[in-house]
Design a protein that fits this description.
Blueprint (H helix, E strand, L loop, with lengths): L2 H17 L9 H10 L1 H18 L1 H14 L5 H32 L3 E6 L6 E4 L5 E4 L4 E6 L4 E13 L8 E4 L3 E5 L3 E6 L3 E8 L2 E5 L11 E3 L4 E5 L5 E3 L13 E8 H8 L7 E3 L6 E7 L3 H11 L2 E5 L4 E5 L1
Parallel strand pairs: 5-6, 15-18
Antiparallel strand pairs: 1-4, 2-3, 3-5, 4-5, 5-8, 6-7, 7-10, 8-9, 9-12, 10-11, 12-13, 14-16, 17-18
Helix pairs in contact: 1-3, 1-5, 2-3, 4-5
């Protein structure tokens, strides 16, 4: 069998496994029918696989096969006859189940929908995903999205996102943000991935937050967040609730950044999402600031910053430095 024929047979098998008991309004019904009509070979291979399955599933057909095998082995010695017949039937079952098992395994473990999205410096993004989930991306944000049969996975590689997740209890929505994994049951929430921590803010709904190590092992008992709650996860530490206002995480949609007792590191990292010339906090841990900044007026904020915090702003060829004063 040629590689192309083998791929077509496996594709037909995948569609059969997916659609044999599917309801008329199954979300994949349209894609299946389009695949079926796109090439006569598709319909032919699908029909052949369906007939094979019917044979496999039919007691009468299986009995006929066993009888044929038994007649073929009649010339062999009597003491081996039944053994060989059973062996041949067993081989057929093994090969058939092997193919079906391989197809089912691939169907379960391979994503059926993938997407990568990136926003540039100072650029936000807004899109509707395949399941109706709304994704809003802050500036300088990168995500990978993969939908599987048993879960929906968004990997937040950097930046900040807001999600209004379409409910689907059979496929939980999971956000992998490095230090933390956030499992969603249907909600409107934000995840901000910073270099030193991950912040999760729930506007409404319910999410589960788990702290993980570099090998994706869950380190502590999960934390459940409900309407208006915020949690922060630091590397190797248990998730902790924060008294922050959850609505602050959504402010960038309105052109505003809200800092609440933010370290200079968080200030520098956040402002750099909107600025071609990066900002670096040389001494991050000793100074904190609370402020509301208009994204369109970041340069003015940098000029005022030394008046509200014990820092000085220094310009270099590489970028802007925030130094302890």
């Amino acid at each position: 069998m040629s590689p192309a024929s083998k791929r077509l047979r496996e594709e037909a098998a995948r569609w059969f496994m997916r659609m044999q008991h599917a309801a008329p309004d199954h979300p994949d019904r349209g894609r299946f029918e389009a695949w079926l009509m796109s090439d006569p070979a598709h319909a032919s291979e699908y029909e052949a696989f369906a007939e094979t399955w019917d044979d496999f599933d039919s007691t009468h057909r299986m009995q006929s096969l066993a009888d044929a095998l038994e007649r073929k082995s009649a010339a062999l010695k009597e003491k081996y006859r039944k053994t060989i017949a059973r062996g041949l039937v067993g081989l057929f079952l093994f090969v058939s189940c092997g193919l079906l098992g391989q197809v089912a395994w691939r169907e379960w473990t391979q994503p059926w929908y993938v997407q990568a999205s990136v926003t540039g410096i100072g650029e936000t993004g807004h899109q509707l995903l395949a399941d109706g989930t709304e994704l809003i991306m802050n500036a300088d944000t990168s995500v990978d999205i993969a939908y599987f049969r048993n879960k929906r996975l968004l990997t937040l590689k950097r930046g900040e996102v807001i999600l209004d997740v379409s409910k689907d209890p059979s496929r939980p929505f999971i956000v992998d943000s490095g230090l933390a994994s956030v499992t969603v049951l249907g909600t409107n929430f934000a995840v901000n991935r910073l270099s030193s921590k991950v912040r999760v803010s729930v506007k409404h709904g319910r999410v589960r937050v788990e702290s993980r190590d570099a090998n994706e092992k869950v380190l502590f008992a999960p934390m459940i967040l409900n309407d208006g709650e915020v949690a922060e996860v630091h590397a190797g530490k248990e998730p902790r609730r924060s008294n922050r206002n959850a609505d602050d995480a959504f402010a960038f949609q309105l052109g505003t950044i809200v800092f609440e007792q933010a370290s200079m590191g968080e200030v520098a990292e956040t402002l750099s999402r909107y600025r071609e010339k990066p900002i670096v906090a040389v001494d991050q841990n000793t100074q904190h600031v609370t402020a509301v900044v208009q994204i369109a007026d970041i340069e003015s904020f940098l000029q005022v910053l030394p008046k509200i915090a014990e820092v000085r702003v220094s310009e270099t060829k590489e970028g802007t430095q925030l130094l302890r004063r």
